[in-house]
Amino acid sequence: MNAQTGQVVTRFAPSPTGFLHIGGARTALFNWLYARHCGGTFLLRIEDTDRARSTPEATAAILEGLRWLGLDWDGEAVSQFARGARHRAVAEDMVARGTAYRCWSTREEIEAFREAAKAEGRPPLFRSPWRDADPATAPEGAPFVIRLRAPLEGETTVQDEVQGAVTWKNETLDDLILLRSDGVPTYMHAVVVDDHDMGVTHVIRGDDHLTNSARQSLIYRAAGWDVPVFAHIPLIHGPDGAKLSKRHGALGVDAYRDMGYLPEAMRNYLARLGWSHGDDEFFTTEQAVEWFDLPQIGKSASRFDFKKLENLSGQHIRAAEDRHLLDHMLALFEVQGRELPDSTRQAQLLEAMPGLKERAKTLLELIDMADYILGSRPFVPDEKAAKHITPESRGILSRLTQRLQNASWSRDDLETECNAFSEAEDIKLGKIAQPLRVALTGRTVSPSVFDVMVTLGREESLARLADATAE
């Protein structure tokens, strides 16, 4: 708990060198879920100290990805680069306290030390001669770094909430650099200072950072600060068990948005990558917040599976409110640069949504299935559908059209008229319905043809039938 507020404080700290990838999104989600579960605070820090690779565009992409996922952070995002003066002040304070020291060893001297250690069969861990030397003997005006005065004996143990107790012998941990000779702080040092100053109580991140936690624990103690709770979550692998790469789906979050996945479906799926609540696969975000806790995170790497994601996505589409789906469809149109449908067609989409969403697994499929509403006459049937428009079916549709012209155009009346036509013509309803569907939508799959006709209205439906029966 935060000593001042008594609250759990988590953070997500991406480097703005590219898009928000799936692994980062999952880390952000776990931090967000835990903070919200505990009634705590979720903070965002942009680790932009690598000025050569950090870009405003990447920062914007990360923020946009988090917003799309619905992971709202508390307060303003913190720039790590902007806190450089604070990082330097802490390093200098540690020197004054005797828990860090200035090191004037040159690159050549360090390399020679390591080569000699290798030749003698010793670990090539650099031990600076300046650790216990008198700084007054340093060459005047020479550049120096500030190093941590790490313990040489004993052990450092991280009590990890996921991995359990993990111990390192201190003889394997070096006097890592806190401040480079140009005054720029190292990643290890800046992270510790920022997490402390931001009041972070729980550091939840990938297990590739586990060794970093041992080193950072030493920095915390050297600065006289409490060490936060660590929870190192397993990495995400591809379906083949190899480290997740672009060929597996290690794309930016924006790519999944563009593929038509709902944010709640992505939250659901990402939560299940490494965390579980019994056998529950499909759950709402509210349920995830209620259930989420660190002990349920597994130690093994999870595998990214597009089929499972699509399955969950379909479930979320079927469970979503119609207006919610329309809003996300319109947002996707804007991303694609497409013209937004007018108010009439938006109303038609809402009316048709209960039938459209039953088969769709993504918003792209939903949009494709709604083509009969979004498109315009004349509708040209696709290759599969065109087979159902024959001289015989044209005759059937032509005779049916004459009957439908007098229908009241309610769903029940349209169904009654079609059934009556089927009996009068002694033709099975299926032999009527499929050409009718193709004439109205240009596809072989759609919501009920009666629902389609009601959505399109009398004038448009009869016009499409006329188009289909024209020679």
UniProtKB/TrEMBL annotation:
Main location: cytoplasm
Localization per Swiss-Prot or TrEMBL: Cytoplasm
Membrane is among the record's keywords: no
Residue ranges annotated as motif 'KMSKS' region: 243-247
Motif stretch ('HIGH' region): 14-24
E.C. no: 6.1.1.17
Domain Aminoacyl-tRNA synthetase class I anticodon-binding: 333-468
Domain spans labelled Glutamyl/glutaminyl-tRNA synthetase class Ib catalytic: 7-310
Biological process (GO), any one: glutamyl-tRNA aminoacylation
UniProt KW keywords: Aminoacyl-tRNA synthetase, ATP-binding, Cytoplasm, Ligase, Nucleotide-binding, Protein biosynthesis
Catalytic activity annotation: tRNA(Glu) + L-glutamate + ATP = L-glutamyl-tRNA(Glu) + AMP + diphosphate
Domain of life: Bacteria
GO cellular component: cytosol
Residues involved in ATP binding: K246
GO molecular function annotations of the record: ATP binding; glutamate-tRNA ligase activity; tRNA binding; zinc ion binding
HAMAP family: Glu_tRNA_synth_type1 (MF_00022)
Function in brief: Catalyzes the attachment of glutamate to tRNA(Glu) in a two-step reaction: glutamate is first activated by ATP to form Glu-AMP and then transferred to the acceptor end of tRNA(Glu).
Record note on quaternary structure: Monomer.
Family: Belongs to the class-I aminoacyl-tRNA synthetase family. Glutamate--tRNA ligase type 1 subfamily.
Protein name from the UniProt record: Glutamate--tRNA ligase
Organism placement in taxonomy: Bacteria, Pseudomonadati, Pseudomonadota, Alphaproteobacteria, Rhodobacterales
